[in-house]
């Protein structure tokens, strides 16, 4: 009777957790020695019942949202085109040694004892050292060549004089008109600046210098000589406005454009759709140098990221660091973000690294349909005000971005959550989270659901043969 009472007390405590999160049930079999006394049996059963009735510890793989099979269909992956492929950039040309780049003295050719002033003037010899007859021959030949050059010079002189007398005056009149028009526009701009200055609280101050070299993206800048990791200005399309970005010129031969960075929790990533579209945060700051050498926390912007990945075949490097200083990375050789009309759909391929293939294979701790719920490849971008995730439900409260702290390519819901909430110290629990979910900066395949990274960044680079 006592045993039956204990079992009745324990079953309600265990069953709800099992039915909520798992498809499989665990049965514990207790074998009691018949030779023991009734009191020993009773105390042993009480101990086992106490262990069973204890509150179960929070299960690690929390990222998925379990199915209610009575009303929900099993999840399926969205079809997505593979990332843009092709040749892309040509391999970088080998760097020349600075000593090889120094110009040596020009040595003019020697033909028959005659020193020529330039290769194009072969045959023009004003002095000879092989005797009087040769000198007379070369002197006559020189007279003929010089006569031809005099004729050519006269023709050029007449052409220039004609332009000066006829064409230049009319061109000057046109230029004067253009200058007058520009002068009027400058006056309008000066008036507009004077008006705006009245609204300024203080004059703008540049905290650090911006390099002169710029390009389509950071790899282009690297090839033009910008080999210092700092903030640059890039312009992927000549018909769009240039913008600032941090370029990593050191990692894996440099040329990386930083599109996302988390490092200190200084920027809130729980933003709306339009903010993720445009981008937000602090690109870079000065770490004591005269240039912006230290990246800040920011999201570059979905429109910009999509544009950069459409230039040609692109790869993405995702780096992360825990609170012990250990580091891992995930490199995807193919990475394309589609435009806003396609809800910035994610397409990745060719994984390499030691962090785990969270984007393509989902959370390694889960299996079957639960794991399918955490695959990110093919997903649309979601924010708390634009629900495009794979959690198909009629309940508006069940939304991945709202529960998991940021905008991302959520499925139902995630194996990776780089834009989640920043938790100091790494380990956190469901009762610390706003909605009781694993909403930290998570990469499940490395640290599980309940560990938030100290640092995580995403950087892209055009693919080209090494």
UniProtKB/TrEMBL annotation:
Residues 209-464 form the Fibrinogen C-terminal domain. Residues 78-101 are annotated as: Disordered. GO terms for cellular component: fibrinogen complex. Keywords: Blood coagulation, Coiled coil, Disulfide bond, Glycoprotein, Hemostasis, Secreted, Signal. It is found in: Secreted. One of its GO terms (biological process) is platelet aggregation. The keyword Coiled coil applies. Residues 1-20 form the signal peptide. The keyword Nucleotidyltransferase does not apply. Pfam families: Fib_alpha, Fibrinogen_C. Transmembrane segments: none annotated. One of its GO terms (molecular function) is protein-macromolecule adaptor activity. SMART domains: FBG, Fib_alpha. It comes from the Eukaryota. CDD domains: FReD. PANTHER family: FIBRINOGEN ALPHA CHAIN, FIBRINOGEN C-TERMINAL DOMAIN-CONTAINING PROTEIN. Heterohexamer; disulfide linked. Contains 2 sets of 3 non-identical chains (alpha, beta and gamma). The 2 heterotrimers are in head to head conformation with the N-termini in a small central domain. This is Fibrinogen beta chain.
